[in-house]
Each structure stands twice: as C-alpha cells, then as structure tokens.
Amino acid sequence: MPDSISQWFKSFIPPKNNVDRFERMRSCAGSLFGILLVGLVSYAILPHEAKTIWLIAPMGASAVLLFAVPSSPLAQPWSIIGGNLSAALIGITCARLVEEPALAAALAISLAIGAMFFLRCLHPPSGAVALTAVLGGPVVHEMGYRFVLSPVGLNSVLLLLAALFFNNASGRRYPHAQQSAAPHPHQTRDELPITRLGFSHEDLDEVLKSYNQVIDIGRDDLEEIFLQTEMRAYHRRFGETRCETVMSRDVVAVEFATSLDEAWGLLQRHRLRALPVVSRARHVIGIVSRSDFLEHAGAEVHTGLAGQLRKLLHRVPFMHSDKPEVVGQIMSAPVISAGVDTPLLELVPRMAEGLHQIPVLDAEGKLAGMLTQSDMIAALYEKNLAAARGAPAGGLRGAA
Question: What is the model's pTM?
Fold first, then answer.
C-alpha cells in the first residue's frame, strides 16, 4: 500500500522537459516582444480614459501558446482570433441575460467551449476571455459588445501579428498548418511504398478517432514523430550504414557546357538513368536524366520519339537557335544530395518517393559518389540478411 501511494504521488511530478536552452530563451523573448507590442500599440490607439481597458489578462495565456508551443493546434491564427472573439461575444451575452454572476460565468465558459468546438477554434485562454466578460466589473459591463472588438479583437490581432513575425524570423514554421501529403510521382491509386510498408494516414486517423480526446499536437507532427521513432529503432537494431560505404565512386559526370549529344551518348554507353552536372571545381550544380531529354524533345507520346530525339541532339551550326544545345539548358536544379556521412536509412523515404539516384558530396561539397536505388536495395538486403544470421554485415559494395 505505501508503495502504491508513493507511485500515485510521483505521478503528479511532470517528466523532464526535452526542450533545449535556446528554445526556452526564444519562447521567453517572444512573449516579451509580443506582450510589449500589444500593450504599447493598444495604449497608443485606444483613448486614455479611466473606463478604457487597453490590455486584458487572457493575452498572457495566449502568449504562452503562441510563443512557447506555436506548433500546437490550439495556437494557430484561427484559434486565437475565432476563439477569443466568440468567447467574448458569448460572455457579454451571458452577463446581460443572467443576473447571478456564478451561473453566468459557468454558462459563458460552457457555451464558449461548445462554440469553439463547433467553429474549430479551440483556444484555452478564450475561457478566461469569457470569464472576464462576465466578472470584469462595471467597466466591462458598461462597454457592452464594444468589449468584443476592443480590447479583445485588437489585442488578439496584434498578438497574432507579433507571433507571425517573431516565430518566422527566429526560424519556426508559423502558422503551423498541416503539411499536405507527398505527391504521388506515378499518379496511381497505390500509396507510396514507404506508406504501404508502415502505418498509413488512415491508420493514424482511425487511432486518433478511437482515442476520442483533443491532442495538443498537430497530426502531421505526430506522424513525423512516429516515423522518426521507427527510424531510431531500426538504427538501434541494425546499426548505421553510411552513404560512403555503399555509394558508387567512379561517377560519370558532365559539365554545364557538355553538348546534348555527348551527354546522351554517355547515358546510353554506361546504361545510366541520370548524370550529375558539375562545375570545374566538382560542385554539383544540377542533374540531367533521360526524362529531361524526353521532356525537352517534346516526346510525351511515343509517336515520332526517335525523330524528336534526333532533332534535339542535332546541333544547329552557324546560327542562333532557341533549341537547347548543352546540358545546362535542360538539367534539373537544385539537386537533392546527401553527405558521405549521411546514414543510408535517412534516404529511404526520398528513394521511395520516386528519386532514382542521389549525388553524394564530401566535406567540401564536391561530388564524391552516386547513390542509386540498386545500391540502396543491395545494402538493405545485406544488412537484413546479416541480422537474420546473427552476424555483422560487412563488405558492402556500391552498385554499378
């Protein structure tokens, strides 16, 4: 019994915060900037009278959300604007219709929560706004519905503008809207391989639906956390194979001014899908693939494919032409690349989304190798085979 009581009391102790010192300082600085801006601007705009309220206390709670947890669904722009305005409107209405303050306050908060659920703008500080509208005293009651626009509306808009500026200026993504799903490169009904083999969006939606509680984290963030957790678990089980271990090192590359016919010949001769385009210092500036040639040849259909390619590859002598003549005119840029020390598993989602090859760069940013889907498959196969046999995987070779 004493142990169970001790465990029960320990459950009240929150776990250690994993946020680093910089993030904590950024949250504090953002709140200082936001509330100071709201206070000064509101004081300058609103009339200086004894009956004028220029800053309301619930803005402090809103500042905690907007600057300390800006990725929360409860901290998004529509949450603060819609939540605070609807709560203020409901609070003033309840204060006018219900004489008993305690009953009016309870009704205001209850109806405000219902309205925020309905309008999809749940914002916890809005409960304090509704309570302020009921219990704010004679000054608030005399203001009536003007309280909704000023100070509530004015304070909310100013704090939102401060959050938009500060969060984005300090490197945060705000508003933290849910990211759209990765486009399907093949335009078919099948999910991407990375989704087919792991949990799907529908799986996560069903679990969240059965959980049936408001979760203070965005759905896309939750999904990303699960994926990163799976990746770390895989690293722990199978170790880390890095790009330099499996990449192809004898890379066939071209320069910007390489002629199209020469580049096409290299693709054909070496049976490659793409060629990295490098500067004279071996920095990757683009990539040219077979699909780039077909696209610029106007060969979306099979009719006349050979003839269209011959026209593209044939140089036009002694005269200016709008037709592409060199690789730099048809290459794709910028290029998704990896470092020699990049763990192979970090690139699996990229390959699964449709990339066939990724240039690998050394510490100086120069081309060091090429990682292809063949290299990836061979490395992962050998890793899993070695794990099944209970022996360390070794001798991984880059695929040609």
Answer: 0.63
